[in-house]
Amino acid sequence: MGTNVQDRIIAIIAEQAVVERADVTPETTLESLGIDSLGLVETIFAIEEAFDISVPFNANEGERNDIDLTSVGAVVRAVEDLIAAKGGASAAFA
């Protein structure tokens, strides 16, 4: 499941940040890509739509969210966990 999820998330984040996919790695922070709070919300919406999941994120909660969105790798791990909780890898291809 991991590589396909990671590739899709990298594509989404690259598109939202308006950067080349090659510039986005698991170690890349969203901040370093210039993704601000509005960009983060748009990125989360795009991820939710792509994977048919609900990301437990509240833009008004800032640092108090239950999900780590600091780096691309953290986002990948969180999405993989949400997909697994929803019912497995089949959800990744919805």
UniProtKB/TrEMBL annotation:
Pfam families attached to this UniProt entry: PP-binding
Location of the Carrier domain: 3-83
Superkingdom of origin organism: Bacteria
Keyword Protein transport: no
Entry keyword Metal-binding: no
Keywords, sorted A to Z: Phosphopantetheine, Phosphoprotein
Signal peptide positions on this chain: none
Protein name as it appears in the record: Acyl carrier protein
Organism: Phaeovulum vinaykumarii
